[in-house]
């Protein structure tokens, strides 16, 4: 029976103990250079001793740890990091979870009003957030809608502070380059006093230094003039009037 060269090569590698008795002394044929539980073996094919490594290490002396990251272990564009044989995923903006499997989301349940109710959700994407929800009980027409500095209900909506404005700019429209981060313009209620919200905004974010977790969302009684009113109030608040309802932005379970 003829054996292939590969089979002969496989049979030629004979594992020996790392230590060999010579004149009563134990001698390491690999000079003690095999690291990380690698074994010294002899190959009849090459007629040399070499280090045979465990599966987690490689290299001439088994000195290098293998990267245990596997393709696809991190989802949604995340990338795998292996340090000290521990695998972790670093997620791109908008995703979270052990394997980046969850899209980052926030929620805000309106309170502080006996007539206004609703839940507003915020979902992070690579280039901005999508804000959706339904609000009931607000008079038909336009109402200013903003992220405010604080999520502090100690004095109801009044303790939410001003618009979230980390860069110290003047008030504007959502599409303006110069605006507060929290400027989301107006939402519109129909004749049934219901507003269906669907806004995509590129400045509000759930990630980074200026994320909006723990801050407040406010629905105002009046129309936001988007900074076009020609007075100081317009450039500060949009003259949107009193606060009808508010909520604190929190992580969505």
From TrEMBL:
<keyword id="KW-0186">Copper</keyword>
<keyword id="KW-0245">EGF-like domain</keyword>
<feature type="domain" description="EGF-like">
    <location>
        <begin position="65"/>
        <end position="101"/>
    </location>
</feature>
<dbReference type="GO" id="GO:0004784">
    <property type="term" value="F:superoxide dismutase activity"/>
</dbReference>
<dbReference type="InterPro" id="IPR018152">
    <property type="entry name" value="SOD_Cu/Zn_BS"/>
</dbReference>
<feature type="disulfide bond">
    <location>
        <begin position="91"/>
        <end position="100"/>
    </location>
</feature>
<feature type="disulfide bond">
    <location>
        <begin position="30"/>
        <end position="40"/>
    </location>
</feature>
<feature type="domain" description="EGF-like">
    <location>
        <begin position="26"/>
        <end position="63"/>
    </location>
</feature>
<keyword id="KW-0049">Antioxidant</keyword>
<dbReference type="Pfam" id="PF00080">
    <property type="entry name" value="Sod_Cu"/>
</dbReference>
<keyword id="KW-0560">Oxidoreductase</keyword>
<feature type="signal peptide">
    <location>
        <begin position="1"/>
        <end position="19"/>
    </location>
</feature>
<dbReference type="GO" id="GO:0005507">
    <property type="term" value="F:copper ion binding"/>
</dbReference>
<keyword id="KW-0732">Signal</keyword>
<comment type="similarity">
    <text>Belongs to the Cu-Zn superoxide dismutase family.</text>
</comment>
<dbReference type="InterPro" id="IPR024134">
    <property type="entry name" value="SOD_Cu/Zn_/chaperone"/>
</dbReference>
<dbReference type="InterPro" id="IPR036423">
    <property type="entry name" value="SOD-like_Cu/Zn_dom_sf"/>
</dbReference>
<keyword id="KW-0862">Zinc</keyword>
<feature type="disulfide bond">
    <location>
        <begin position="34"/>
        <end position="51"/>
    </location>
</feature>
<dbReference type="InterPro" id="IPR000742">
    <property type="entry name" value="EGF"/>
</dbReference>
<comment type="function">
    <text>Destroys radicals which are normally produced within the cells and which are toxic to biological systems.</text>
</comment>
<protein>
    <recommendedName>
        <fullName>Superoxide dismutase [Cu-Zn]</fullName>
        <ecNumber>1.15.1.1</ecNumber>
    </recommendedName>
</protein>
<keyword id="KW-0479">Metal-binding</keyword>
<dbReference type="InterPro" id="IPR001424">
    <property type="entry name" value="SOD_Cu_Zn_dom"/>
</dbReference>
<feature type="disulfide bond">
    <location>
        <begin position="53"/>
        <end position="62"/>
    </location>
</feature>
<keyword id="KW-1015">Disulfide bond</keyword>
């Amino acid at each position: 029976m003829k054996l292939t060269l590969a089979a002969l090569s496989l049979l030629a590698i004979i594992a020996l103990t790392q230590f060999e008795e010579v004149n009563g002394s134990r001698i390491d044929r690999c000079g003690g250079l095999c690291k990380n539980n690698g074994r010294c073996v002899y190959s009849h094919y090459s007629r040399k001793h070499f280090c045979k490594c465990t599966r987690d290490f490689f290299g001439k002396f088994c000195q290098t740890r293998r990267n245990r990251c596997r393709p696809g272990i991190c989802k949604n564009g995340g990338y795998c990091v292996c340090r000290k044989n521990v695998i972790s995923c670093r997620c791109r903006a908008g995703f979270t979870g052990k394997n980046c499997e969850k899209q980052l989301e926030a929620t805000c349940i309106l309170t502080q009003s006996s007539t206004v109710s609703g839940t507003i959700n915020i979902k992070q994407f690579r280039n901005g957030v999508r804000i959706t929800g339904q609000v009931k009980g607000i008079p038909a027409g336009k109402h200013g809608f903003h992220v405010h500095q604080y999520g502090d209900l100690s004095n109801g909506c009044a303790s939410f502070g001003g618009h979230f404005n980390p860069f110290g700019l003047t008030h504007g429209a959502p599409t303006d380059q110069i605006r507060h981060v929290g400027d989301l313009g107006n939402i519109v209620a129909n004749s049934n006093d219901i507003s269906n919200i669907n806004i995509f905004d590129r400045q509000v974010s759930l990630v980074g230094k200026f994320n909006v977790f723990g801050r407040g969302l406010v629905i105002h009684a009046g129309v936001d003039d988007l900074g076009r009113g020609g007075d100081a109030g317009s450039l500060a608040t949009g003259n949107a009037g009193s606060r009808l309802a508010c909520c604190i932005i929190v992580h969505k379970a």
